[in-house]
Amino acid sequence: MGWPALKQWGDDARRIEPLTGGVGVNEVWSVRVNGRLAVGRLGRRSDADLAWETDLLRHLDRGGMAVPVPIPTTDGRSFADGLVVMTYVEGGPPETEADWQRVGETLRQLHRLTRDWPQRPGWRSSTDLLHAETGTRVDLGAMPPEGVVRCRAAWARVAGGARCVVHGDPNPRNIRMTADRVALIDWDESHVDVADLDLALPHNAVGLDEEAYDLAAQARAAWEAAVCWDPTGVDPFGANRLAEVRARD
């Protein structure tokens, strides 16, 4: 396990410099493989988890989406010893309302392409957490009981929505735009869930009515509160997101 695994992409494969993505979860570096600029991501996810993610990215690429595409090792594997090497995706973040509308169209495309996709190994959806206590990085038992009630109420309001792969973190840092395409990067939080978790975008970019937008925003805030909850209180992000989740009307 570790960066020596990069040699499995060729004797000339090398790291260049660290990138900002994946802080706290992975080590992410720009790398050079077969003379091309690429991205290497080293983490501790299981082989089953990495297989799910790399299969998803190839499926989306075949479906016409712009995503980082896994580059195989010299013997054809999608990853090795926790390391995934992917194509480098250029572009800048969305800035205008029109940009965000293009992002919204891209997320809708993701959802259409993955309606029958299996759940990421070991993950639970917001719908599952209406009854389950734990899943992946979520431990509802560590949250205040009243906060859990609010989160579950927010998830219950969207539980009847279409299930598909959600990107899980469509913030500007994870979007790379050019004049002719919108790319989504950093698929660490992707899993199967209700599409609403991706749809509370700036400028209401997917054109939800007022009630639907509010429900999606509440469900998203509840999800981020649960995933990022820090029982020590050192990181306030989860608590801040929980404060945005209203009690059941």
From TrEMBL:
The keyword Transferase applies. Keywords: Kinase, Transferase. Residues 17-219 form the Aminoglycoside phosphotransferase domain. InterPro entries: Aminoglycoside_PTrfase, Kinase-like_dom_sf. One of its GO terms (molecular function) is kinase activity. The keyword Transferase applies. This is Ser/Thr protein kinase RdoA (MazF antagonist).
